Task: structure prediction
Amino acid sequence: MFEIVLDDDGIIAVEGRLDAAQAVKAQAFLDQVNGQCVLDLAKLEYISSAGLGVLLKTHKRLMGSGSGIKLVNVSHHIHDIFRYSGFDKLFEIVAAGT
Amino acid sequence: MQKKFKRSFDELKHIVKMTESVFQKTGMQPGLRNIVDLATEELFVNMVTYNTESNEDILIEMVPHALGLEVRLTDYDVERFDPTCAASVDIDAPLDERTPGGLGLYLVMKMVDSIHYEYRNRQSKITFIVDRK
Result:
């Protein structure tokens, strides 16, 4: 199961498993986003390199116009993946519970 | 447990169910699920993406190991490609130099406790072990 939706506060909520089978859906959604983008990952259970690629591509596009992606409510496990990937140096990341 | 999967990303949801079942039966720590899921997905996706000349299903085996769980992926009628020799990724590179390429195999090497590749009779077999911590 994977869902990505824009909530009433303008935050994009990402839920479920962002794997290679769901990366196209996530990319199609994020390709429509412009300006500063906040992704709430509180309900993201799993991310693979395909999902990381979606975040990287979108972040690079948005940074090109002076904005970017901020990742909030990041769980310990997902944060480990970001750290192993070096994404903790590329993105503004706010851990869950802070 | 062993199962064969078609060469499609749509099979990932079925692979996840297989892993879930194996974890329930073996009593592996649930916290290790994401490591097994990630390594299995990355290696499976690599086979599907790059071994395009084969129409054979991919065999995945998950068996208890003295140290934890051993996972084997076997691809049939393919050229040799050793993922353990894949180029490294510079995770310290600035954003404009970063690309997603190679990140999956890099994460596999980083997260599993051991990995082994063998190629024989046009069969590629990758075995990795995730230890009980």
About this structure: Chain A has one domain: 2-95.
